[in-house]
Amino acid sequence: MKKIILLSLILLFLPSVSAVLCDDRTSPIDIPCGVVTPVITCTNFTYNLINITSNTTLIANGTMLPTPNGTFNFTFNQPLGDYQIILCDATTATITVAFETGADFSNLYWLGFLIFVILIGLGFWFEDPVFTTVAGFLAVLLALAIFILGFPGFTDRFILNSFSVVLTGIGLFFIIAPYFNEIMKLFGGGK
Question: Which of 8, 52, 131, 178 makes an SS bond possible with 123, Cβ 3.0 to 4.6 Å?
């Protein structure tokens, strides 16, 4: 029974790979995104990236990668600010890098918290430290996600970072606590 539950949890938490495309208006901060051009005809497929705020050219003659359908793409990763992209055929686009407010990960956070509580309950019910250890790792992953991505509706970074530190501590407790006696025996203490 425990093996089926653990196997289903592992399958539930398999990582997924995704790519973020840059929007014409905003791009999330600190997340590289892909710029896809319209179909263009140039002799050399390059682009210039200009910081509009300081009017400085950041990338001159950057190279673009061709796609099978006649468009080109390149990766965009810049700090907060407004940027203008000028393609080789003089086509322009403006990208504003800002904190992303449109993404709503709250359902995933609540699902993760619910799974955390269920795993803690299963760990105490079956008296099996594996469940509480997996719950501890989940708490640390949730803390890391909240630290990096934030939480929808909360803009105060101090509160979010403080919550992440507390959640990390709770996770580490549930990772270490079930094995505390064995750890103490290694160092000459304990029972």
Answer: 131
